[in-house]
Structure formats: structure tokens, C-alpha cells
């Protein structure tokens, strides 16, 4: 298991809450893959034991890119089931759907008032998505990070566990919180990132790009069949032969480095011997892939089983989400009242 690094764990205003509050979101935009698991969900499942945790299926974020309304409700259920199957305990954590708690949209508007457009235009993810967009650049896409700020600040969460691609968005939400506090009075704790180091999983078919649900062939789904996991691991891009004796893992090609990252996550006990073999120039990638595939199957087969059971009972998933929204809402309402009051909206 990789060590997680904490940049900020306490709420600076009004002292730390009884238990530090964690918030994170995942978009219901298609398959959840092992990159999401390693970079996000796995961390959440660990954090929920020690922190008061809010995990949100961010449907309002997901609709900022083209989507199919008729399929969307199913995607939301699917994302919820995958998260529960992967270890989010809906009793321990508050698992809910963003649009079920309308205060997210309301706080976003209030935060829009104090968010400079220039700062939004500089967000890397916005620039990427705007460049690739075939339908023009909509205001919703630009304001995506403001909604993210609203998500976190609504619960006065102080810890946001995400992958490194989201760090810029968390920095922005700190700025927004700071500006709000300065302009309207101390209201929001400044949220900090909780990052899993080196957790970026690369595509199996092209290790120069991130494993992503939008690139076919790049990912292994969380609920992939065991045989498919084995096949995809076997086919992962590596090097034609072992490295020269005395090579350092830091200099490994991206495909090889990716396999080592995964091996460390899924088969930590076997990791050192393969690192040693790499440095000695005797590593056999086929053997390493076999060990990795076995370990991945061991982790993911029970998850797939739980996921399939849940998907047989969609009403149970809906109940879980309704219960989550019911627990989230009073907290959200309290913050909205406070923010409105501070802004002179009475
Ligand atoms: P997304 O799939 O973009 O909605 O991301 C959901 C969460 O998974 C975010 O915290 C991402 O940083 C994380 N994530 C997505 N893709 C990867 C990847 N290839 N490696 C590690 N983390 C990822
Ligand atoms: N933008 C995040 C992603 O794509 C998802 C997200 C929405 C989120 N709201 C959030 C993450 C609040 C952390 C906190 O991964």
C-alpha cells in the first residue's frame, strides 16, 4: 500500500471539527476502471474508517460534456454500485448523488460571484476539454471548478482525496474559500489535497497516456471478467527484453514503470523481488505479468461479484443513495443559510 501524504488536516477556523471531514466526487460518465480504483476509490475506502466521509456521484459535473440523457440514470446507479462493491461502506460514509442535494447548485452561484473568469480560463482541464469540444465551449464547462468548490465547501470538508490531475481544482477552491472569508467573514475552512503518490495508472495499450474511460483499449474496468483482466495484463506494452544489469527502476520505460506501480499496489509482497530482478537485468516480464494478473484477479473478482449482486437489486442502490442525500442535506442546508446570511441575502 502506498503512503499517503497530507498537506492540511485541520480546519483553521473555529478549531478542527470533532472529526476531520473528507469530501470527494466521482463522475458517472462510464466505466469505472482500475485507475479510478488505485487513484481514488481505494483511498476513499481507507479514509472512511478514520474520517467523516462524504462521497458524491457528481452527476451535475458529468453533464458538462455531451451525454445521453436516456442512459444517464443507469450510469449513476452503476457508479454507485461500483463504489459500494469497491469498498465504500454506505453506513460508514455518506454516499449520495450531487443533484439530489440542490444546495450544491445554489452555493455554486454564490461562489460564482467571487470567482475571476481569468482563473477559470487558466484551468488545464478546462483548456483541454474546450480544445477537444465539438459543440463549442459552454459556460457550464468553464464553471465546472466552481461547482467543485461548492461541493467541498458545502460540507466544510478540510480534506479532498484526489488524483494529481485534480490538484489545480483544489487549489482554486482554496482561493475561492479564502476570498469568501475575506470578503464576507470567516466561513469556510481551506480544504487540502490528499494525494496518493505515484498513483497515476497509464494506459495498457499506450503507456504514454493516462488510463482513461474515454480511450478504448486503454483500461481494465473494475468489474472486468477475470479472463479479460489476464488477457489485458498479458498484452500490456513493455520492453522487448530485460534491462541492462545495473539499471534503475526510475529510468524504466513508461510501460514497465506502470506494471511496477500496479505490482506495488496489488502484490506488495512480491514487489521487492521484481525490483531486484529488474536492477540485476534478469527480470522476466511474462512472469511479472502473471503475478500481477493473479493479484488483480484476487482483488477484483469479489468486487465484480458484489457489483453484479447489487445491479440485480437497483432499488437497494436507490435506497442507499436516498439515505445518503437525507444525511447530507441538513449539513448542506446549514452552510447555505450561513453563506446567504453573510452575503446579505435574507
Ligand atoms: P475520472 O474518471 O476522471 O472522473 O476520475 C475519477 C477519479 O479517479 C479522480 O480522482 C482521478 O484523479 C482518478 N483517476 C482517473 N484516472 C486515473 C488514472 N489513470 N490513474 C490514477 N487515478 C485516476
Ligand atoms: N472533478 C473531479 C474528477 O473529475 C470530480 C469531483 C467533483 C470532485 N467534485 C469534486 C473531486 C469535489 C473532489 C472534490 O475527478
Protein described:
The chain has a 3-stranded mixed beta sheet. Strands 2-3-4 form a 3-stranded parallel beta sheet, sandwiched between helices. It has 346 residues and is mainly alpha-helical. Helices cover 53% and strands 8% of the residues. The chain has 2 domains: 7-201 and 313-342, 3-Layer(aba) Sandwich (Rossmann fold), CATH 3.40.50.620; 226-308, Orthogonal Bundle (Tyrosyl-Transfer RNA Synthetase). The structure holds adenosine monophosphate and tryptophan.
Summarize the structure.
This protein is mainly α and 346 residues long.
Which structural class matches the secondary elements? mainly alpha
Which regions are unreliable across 5 or more consecutive residues at pLDDT < 50?
1-17
User: How many distinct helices?
Assistant: 13
How is the quaternary structure best described?
single chain
Measured as a percent range, the helix fraction is: 40-55%
CATH level-two architecture of the largest domain: 3-Layer(aba) Sandwich
Task: List the SSEs and their pairings.
Elements lengths: L3 E3 L14 E6 L7 H17 L1 E6 L1 H4 L9 H14 L8 E4 L5 H10 L4 H5 L2 H9 L6 H16 L4 E4 L4 H18 L7 E5 L29 H10 L18 H13 L4 H10 L4 H28 L1 H29 L4
Parallel strand pairs: 2-3, 3-4, 5-6
Antiparallel strand pairs: 1-6
Helix pairs in contact: 3-12, 4-7, 4-13, 7-8, 9-12, 10-12
Amino acid at each position: 500500500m502506498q503512503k499517503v501524504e497530507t498537506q492540511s488536516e485541520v480546519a483553521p477556523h473555529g478549531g478542527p471539527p470533532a472529526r476531520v471531514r473528507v469530501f470527494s466526487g466521482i463522475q458517472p460518465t462510464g466505466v469505472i476502471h482500475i485507475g479510478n480504483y488505485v487513484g481514488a476509490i481505494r483511498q476513499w475506502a481507507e479514509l472512511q474508517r478514520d474520517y467523516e466521509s462524504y462521497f458524491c456521484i457528481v452527476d451535475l459535473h458529468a453533464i458538462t460534456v455531451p451525454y445521453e440523457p436516456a442512459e444517464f440514470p443507469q450510469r449513476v446507479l452503476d457508479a454507485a454500485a461500483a463504489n459500494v462493491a469497491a469498498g465504500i461502506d454506505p453506513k460508514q460514509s455518506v454516499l449520495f448523488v450531487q443533484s439530489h442535494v440542490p444546495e450544491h447548485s445554489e452555493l455554486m452561484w454564490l461562489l460564482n460571484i467571487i470567482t475571476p473568469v481569468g482563473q477559470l480560463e487558466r484551468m488545464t482541464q478546462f483548456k483541454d476539454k474546450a480544445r477537444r469540444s465539438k459543440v463549442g465551449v459552454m459556460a457550464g464547462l468553464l464553471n465546472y471548478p466552481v461547482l467543485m468548490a461548492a461541493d467541498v465547501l458545502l460540507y466544510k470538508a478540510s480534506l479532498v482525496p484526489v488524483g494529481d490531475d485534480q490538484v489545480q481544482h483544489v487549489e482554486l477552491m482554496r482561493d475561492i474559500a479564502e476570498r469568501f472569508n475575506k470578503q464576507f467573514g470567516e466561513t469556510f475552512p481551506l480544504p487540502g489535497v490528499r494525494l496518493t503518490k505515484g498513483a497515476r495508472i497509464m494506459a495498457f495499450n499506450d503507456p504514454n497516456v493516462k488510463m482513461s474511460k474515454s480511450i478504448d483499449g486503454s483500461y481494465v474496468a473494475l468489474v472486468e471478467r477475470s479472463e479479460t483482466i489476464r488477457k489485458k495484463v498479458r498484452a500490456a506494452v513493455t520492453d522487448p527484453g530485460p534491462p541492462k544489469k545495473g539499471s534503475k527502476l526510475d529510468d524504466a520505460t513508461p510501460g514497465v514503470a506502470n506494471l511496477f506501480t500496479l505490482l506495488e499496489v496489488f502484490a506488495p509482497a512480491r514487489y521487492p523481488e521484481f525490483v531486484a530482478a529488474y536492477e540485476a537485468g534478469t527480470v522476466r516480464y511474462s512472469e511479472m505479468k502473471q503475478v500481477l494478473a493473479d493479484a488483480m484477479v484476487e482483488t477484483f473478482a469479489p468486487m465484480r461479484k458484489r457489483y453484479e449482486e447489487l445491479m440485480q437489486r437497483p432499488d437497494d442502490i436507490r435506497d442507499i443513495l436516498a439515505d445518503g442525500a437525507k444525511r447530507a442535506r441538513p449539513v448542506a442546508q446549514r452552510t447555505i443559510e450561513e453563506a446567504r446570511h453573510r452575503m446579505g441575502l435574507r
